[in-house]
Amino acid sequence: MSSQNYNLNSLTGGQPKSKTLPALRKLVGLLPEQRGKLILAFVTMVIYAILSMVPPVLIGFTINKVLLHKAAATSLDIFGWHVLQGSGYGLVLTVCACLLVIYLVNLAAVYLRTIFMGGFGQHLLFTLRNAIFNKLQELPVAFFARNKAGDLISRINNDTDKLNQFFSQSLMQFVSSIFILTGAGIALVWLNWRLGLATLAPAALMWIYTKLLSPWVKKKNAVALKATGAMSAEIQESLGNFKVVVAFNRRDYFRQRFDAANKHNYSSAIKAGIANNIFTPVYGLLASMGQMIVLLYGVYLVSTGHLEVGFLVSFILYVSYFYDPLRQLAALWASFQVAIAGWDRISQILSLESDLVTLPVTAAASGNGISGNGSTVVLEFKDVSFRYDGSKDVLRHNSFHMEKGKTYALVGPTGGGKTTTASLIARLYDPTEGVVLLNGRDIRTYTPRERAQKIGFILQEPFLFTGTVRDNILYGNEEYKDYTNEQLEEALHRAGLETLLARFDEGLDTKVLAAGDSISLGQKQLIAFIRAVLRNPELLILDEATANIDTVTEKMLEDILRRLPATTTRVIIAHRLNTIENADEIFFVNSGDITRAGSLDQAVNMLLEGKRVS
Ligand SMILES: Nc1ncnc2c1ncn2[C@@H]1O[C@H](COP(=O)(O)OP(=O)(O)OP(=O)(O)O)[C@@H](O)[C@H]1O
């Protein structure tokens, strides 16, 4: 039984959980092959940041030298280092030439960065979508019973795209802004620590403001993404059931539901939008305060002889080098919060593990595989109880066995637990208590592939894929994969299935649409039947598999079932009595119990009286 909580929406209750840095590290870890490019992009950013720090100090020293120390202006020395040669205006020209070189190198660095990062976002998007989709293929039925397909689709499409937007458009700007402002901050303190610290004071306020508000911004974004997922689920539900909607004239009902979901999505998107813009104006104000401080305190320091005027110019330049990227960060921070909220929703899926793991044979239960009368036992329930997540017991302490080659029927009232019993036999779920043995071995020790080979399950609502009858018959069947149509028809003939194929106008090439109605429900059941029988399973489960089939075709199916190898065990769930009259044994399934009913008459009595025979 599922010990894992598969309900994604109850995992965090919409609350964000990822910490920024670990989340980033995990994301980058998804793309090991991109690491080299990321490092190169990182190096270009460091070069850009370092070179960007040079012009203000060069300009400051030049102004001081040329305007304040005219007589000695034959060379430029910075902190005792002889940097440039030249006199008077010639020195200014030389400095300008140096600045031009720096600007050009920086230009090249930005281009290189763009090249290295080009496609990173798309690559991430591609990898994430693959990773989620593959994870979905691994998860058990219980996961899909707990989550709406529309919400899952929204996670694959919409949430991954939020990450892509951040990574392709904002990440590099984000990181380079951090580099530049760090460099400018160091330069400010280095030039004059008093003025530097005073200028940086508003940034400390910004940091506190950001720290306090970030969780709120992230939460608003998480709610908005969840609302988009809910809207997508609403669309999926109404499109998936459009016939019922039309037949019951419930268009208004779905319209209202969609309207409510759309309104919620709209209002939460507006709230997220407001939250995302909360930083920018305040950052702008604090940046202006930084400039005011330079003006007030800087002019004072110059007038009292504690600072040279050239450095005041350097300061003014560095202040904008510091606060401009910070202002940019304010805008980028919001897109970062959206991306992290998207990542939270994605990583919820990625971190799930199927609890239907394959156990090692040695650790698991086993039986002798022989019944009291000496027949081979193919399936055994040992004290099995089962309940779906959070609901009452559907089965309680049931023990029984099924022998090789026999036909068993499961009967009982609607909702009695027949499909649940069949699902446990096919290990779509694990029992809450007890154990299911297949060929005397704990069913959990078989790999999914082995299980699928041994057990054929024809579901109550057969699901078909878009393609042809051939594609659907061969789904998951490696053995006949490379057969030509003629060879496959031959194989169907051998299995006695060719009469069923005749029910399709274009035979194996008949088109099938998963969502549409290109074929009838009965034809769908025929395809599911052929698909299961062709695999030649040891155990074949038919869950109401003939409910939509005419009596002539049903007779054909019975014929085919009879011609199955003598070793095939059949488990038939049916409401129609004629379907089960040939069963060797009948089980009555109701109110948590699976009881041997003995004869068909006895089973009918139990069904009519609604009571059990113990
Ligand atoms: N995925 C699920 N989650 C929670 N409860 C479920 C789930 N599937 C079935 N149930 C409940 O388990 C009980 C048994 O259902 P089950 O489908 O096994 O009955 P059944 O005998 O096959 O009915 P029917 O003849 O209508 O097919 C019912 O009360 C049903 O509501």
Automatic annotation (TrEMBL):
Keywords: ATP-binding, Cell membrane, Membrane, Nucleotide-binding, Transmembrane, Transmembrane helix, Transport. Its main location: membrane. PROSITE patterns: ABC_TM1F (PS50929), ABC_TRANSPORTER_1 (PS00211), ABC_TRANSPORTER_2 (PS50893). Residues 379-614 form the ABC transporter domain. Residues 39-337 form the ABC transmembrane type-1 domain. It comes from the Bacteria. It holds the Pfam family ABC_membrane. It is found in: Cell membrane. The chain crosses the membrane at residues 38-59, 90-112, 171-191, 197-217, 278-300, 306-323. GO terms for molecular function: ABC-type oligopeptide transporter activity; ATP binding; ATP hydrolysis activity. It is a multi-pass membrane protein. GO terms for cellular component: plasma membrane. This is Putative ABC transporter ATP-binding protein. It comes from Puia dinghuensis.
